[in-house]
Structures are given as structure tokens and as C-alpha cells.
Hints:
Neuraminidase; 4-stranded antiparallel beta sheet; 10 helices; 34 strands
Amino acid sequence: MLIRAFRLTDKFSNAFLKIAVWLSSFLLTQVTLLRESSEHAIVNLYTGTKDTVDTVTRGSRNAYGATDNRRRSLMAQRAAIVESDSRGVIQAALVEDPLVQQNRTLSMFTVLLLIALIAVVLWATSQAPTSNNGSSNLGGIIPRNNTPLATARDIPTQAPSVTPVPQPLNWRGTLAFSLRENGQEDVFAFQRGDSAPSRLTNNPADDRDPAWSPDGRTLAFVSNREGNWDLYIMDIISKEIRRITFSPGYEGSPTWSPDGLFLAFEAYDNVTNNLDIYLTSVDGSGECGQTPCQVTRQSGADFEPAWMPQAPDGSGGRLIAYTSIRADTQDIYLLDLDNPSDESALNLTNTPSIDENYPAWSPDGQFVAYSVRTEDGIEGVFYRDINDPSRENGVGRGRMPTWNPIDGSSLFYTAQRGQDQSQIIGANPGTLGGGGDLQTISGTVADLDWMAAEPEFEAVVANYAQLYDEVAALSADGRYLLALLPGVDAPDAYLNARVDDSFNALRQRVEAETGINYLGELEDAFWRKERLPEGGLPRESWHYAGRAIALNRTLVSQGSPTPMVVVRENRELGTYWRVYLRVAETAQNGSLGEPLRQIPWNFDARTSGDDLEAYEAGGRRMTSLPPGYYVDFTQLAADYGWEPVPSERNWRQNYPGILYWQFVRNDGLNYAQAIRELYTEAEAALIGAPPIAATATIPIAPTETDIPARTPTPLPPDQQ
């Protein structure tokens, strides 16, 4: 039966090959005829010959004649061979049949073509961009490791979840990320079927930048629990934590080598006064053990490294992608560990007018995904093929991507939704727009990292207290009173009693984080009714409602480096500014704050007199990052409910309209409602507050019995 099937298959194969050969011969004949006919037609058309038809006919006859002569010649050769062979007809037929020879030749050609195609594919996918093939002593420190990668099979896994997972987010593995809530950052994990993320760390200090080891058993992260930022690793099962770095400066953003023996990370270099990329061995041995090896040294900042994965056959794993700031441009670069020099690093993105950051490798090492903030303030996730970096591919709106570690068929990334919510979004490469929301989480999600394993682990419970308790005092007529700000120097150091406690707690937090009482002196707090805004600004101001503070705006120009720097952040609704405060000089050893990663704005350039472009643009970005350690005041303020306000549209021409110094706490109220918390309807009209719509209502104030005993601060005499 098997032999009969084989013979039948062989007959069909021969028949298919015969048909293919016949079709090829017929097509060749027609192509020959068409070519010769076209050539004659073109020649006759060019020369103006009147015998075009006769010439074409003659060419056709010649072509058929040549074909017929070739057929006759082959038949004659076959007859001669058969006639001269004395060993019989069967042998002659086996040796002489031209169709058999054609079939054999075609089969051999097909096999050779497939082998060549496979070889080309293997060669193309194994190549990585290198700018220089030179060697370096780092190749000896980080030797090539061609052994198979470690797996996560020794990790106990949980039973498959019965919770249905909506498409297209039918994913596997475990996501780790940092989550900022209640003014603190901790590391969390999320698995398929989970209704909420599980907390992995709970320390009064901040823990962030989680990175899974290749075997999925260990999680590297960064923490300032010992007084300054260092690298730590945690066994995901036992929760045992071990410190890796011990320098007094800043270290962050760890990423594992494919063999799990080394960590690459960013650290502040006191010589270059910038962030650079370093390597250290996890067990503390070797040349990069107790003293990490510095990889980059260029004058700009190099940070957020991502180590190229290693293929199962041992290839790859020799490139590090990272964010680099050179002059006033921020791009994604690739560094070859076999030639780790700043000059030979490949600029993958090369976009002078757009900033990219947070690079992430696909599991096969072919693509690098990253975040982008466009000029109009839209954050997006893109990726590039390292073998064809000129083409950029979009994924969706968000930031901080991580690839599916199993097959690279999808990505997760995060997007901020309002002041206190984040979304984790799933998408497939090449399908711009996103594939769906995986989870909405309260707080700010960052530093996503995805691994294939799904280990069982115990979550820890948060035990930290709330940042503050807001106690509001009412006047006799049921409206809110003003509260005096103790220890604050301002023209009128008052705020609405509904927001003063959050401000006082923020002031203490800023002093603890920076070593300087920056909020002890305000340019403005509460505004009296008769005060008018600065020229070019609208009448409506949250200062009248006692819900706005103004920092000392001149801090951006005092000294070098200045106590305050601001980074321009274009958002879809306007131009905003992120404020950074420099820590005290006694804490510039890394005990407070961290280095800058964004290029601040230089407002003084607008009045330099020799830069027309900067004058029209309201300034320009600095040419380098200011040295030292800073605290993100905008982030701290948001922890306590205080948000920056957008600049006025004419801010480039009108300096008071920049408003980077102003922060507001509105608690969801609009301006008209906020004014009426302090003033009657008639008084509100004098300040320029619009009337409240008929459908709008002011939130019901708590009654006197709901408020703990407290001595209220009345309005200033002229405001009563």
C-alpha cells in the first residue's frame, strides 16, 4: 500500500514537472517572439520603414524556425544515441530522455535555491549594526557567552486563571512596574487574571526602575532606602533583598546582561558632571565588581540603558541601547560592547527637533521601541529596525514601552489619564492606535518590564500614613475662611482653609527633600479684591479664591547654577513648565535629589540681543544640562494636589504670561465656584467671576459639627 502510494505520488510529481517544463518552454517561445517583434517594430518606427508588417512577420517566422530547428536537433541526437547503444531500449530511454534530465535539473535547482534563501535569511537576521569592528578591553571584562540562556522552569507557577481575558490582550507572563501613590514610589507586579497589581516593596523610601533577570527569579530595582540611590536585587519568591552598589552618588535604571551575570545602569559622574552608563557584576567579582566599569564618557548625559537580548543560539547580546543628550538634542544610541566608544556609538533615531527616551528591545534583538514627545505635546510609542533605522514605525499614544518577551508580537506601555490615574495599554507592532486597555490604576505607572514566567509570590501590604489631613473652617454665613500660613513670607500669606493643610505639608516635604525652605518665601498667595493682575493677563486669577501660590520667579536667574530650572512641556492643551529645585550644596553628594534628565529652558536668551530666533520663541533650550542634584517640585506638588497652570498664548512676547511659577489647587471646582467659596454673589461679580450656570452647584460645605475644634483665621479687615 505504501509502495503504491509512493508510485502514485511520483506519477503526479512527474506530471506536474512536465506541465511546468511545457509551460516554461511555451512562455520562453512567446517571450522570444515578443522581444524580436518589438525590436523590429521599434527599429522600423524610428527609421520610418514602410515594411513594418513584413519585418515583424519575418521575425516571427525566424523565431519559430529557430525553435523548430532546436527540436529537430534534439530528436536527431536522441536517435543517434539509441541507435549506437547496444545495451537495449530501456537503458537508452533512461539515459537519453531529455524530459527526465530537465526534471532532475529543475529539482536540483529548486533545492539549491531553497538552501541559498535559508542561508540569506539566517545571515540577515543575525547581523547587528556596529560602527567599528575594533576590539576593546571591555570584551574581556564582559566575555561572549554562547551557552543557552537560563530559563524560569525552576520557578513555581500558579494555576491558569479562570478569569476570562478580553481580546486582543490574551497575554502571558508577568509585568513589573513602579507606581507612585500617596507621594511614594514602590514596585508592583501584575499577572493575567489579576484584578489589581500586587505590591512587591513597601519601604518608607522610594523603590523604582524594576528589571527582571533573564531567568525570571530575580528583580533588580533602585532605592534610596539607605540615604542615597543605589541598586538592589530581590528574590521574587523569598523576598530577600541584597544591595549591589555602595557609592555615595546616584545610580539608577538597571538592565540585565543576557546571561544574568552583569547589570548595566546609569550613574552620576562627578568628573563629567553628567549621567553615564556603567557595568557591574551581580556577585561583586571581577574587574567590574566592587568598582563598576564606566562605559560612556561624552560631555552630555547618557542614561536609561537597555541591554540587547541574546538569542537561544548564543548570538546577539552585545549592544546596549540608551538615551543620550548631546548639545541640545536627545536621541536613542546603540553602543557596541566590543567597541564601547562614544564616537562609534550609532545614533538610532537622529531627530534633532524631537526627544526620544526609554528604549526597549524586542526579544529577538531586531527592534528597539522608545517613547517620543512630539512638538505639539503628544506622547507616543515608536520602534525602529536596527538594520534599517531610517524607517520609524508607530504603535500608539503613551510612553515607556516593553515587548512581549515570548515572541515580540505585542507591546505594553503606559499613559497618564488625568492627575491621578494611569492606564497600561496593549498594542501590536505596526498597528497604530493600540490594541486595548489592560488595566487602569490609581497613581502614576512607570518603568514597565515584562517577563515570560508567571511565578507565585506573596504581595506585601502598604502601611504608610496619608500625606496630610485637610481641615476646613467655615464662617458664620457658611462660607469658607482664609487660613494663615505660619512661617511663610508673602504679601498676604493666606490660603483658602480648604487647601492650606496640603500646602503646609508640601512646604515641609520640599524642605526635607531639598534641604532648603523654598516655600517659606512666596511671591504671592492670596490676592485682595482691589489687586489687578499684571499687564496682559486676564482678570480671572485663582489667587482671588485663595487657591494659588506663586514661587519666586527670579530663582531661574540667580547665580550659576541657578536654584531653579524649568523644562518646557508642550501638552495638547497648551504650554506647561516642569519646575526643578536644586538641593542644598551640603547635599550635592547624592544624599538628596537626583541628576537632571531633561534639558531646561533658558529665558535669558530672549533678551541676549544676538539671537533673533530665541527672542521670537521666548527663549531656547540650554545647550547642556546643569550639573548637580535637583528635586522635581512639579511632581511633589502633584502629590499634594497642586498643579501647574498653562502659559498664556502670548507668553513668548509677554513675560508675565509664562506663569511657570504659579501652582493651583482647584479640587475639581471651576473658577466661578471657587470664588463663591469665599465671596457673596455681589462680591464675586466685582472680582470678575462669571455667574454660575443654573445647572451648576457649589459643593455642600460641611457643617460646624463636622469640623474638629480649631481657631479659624478670618478674612483680612478690608475683605470682611
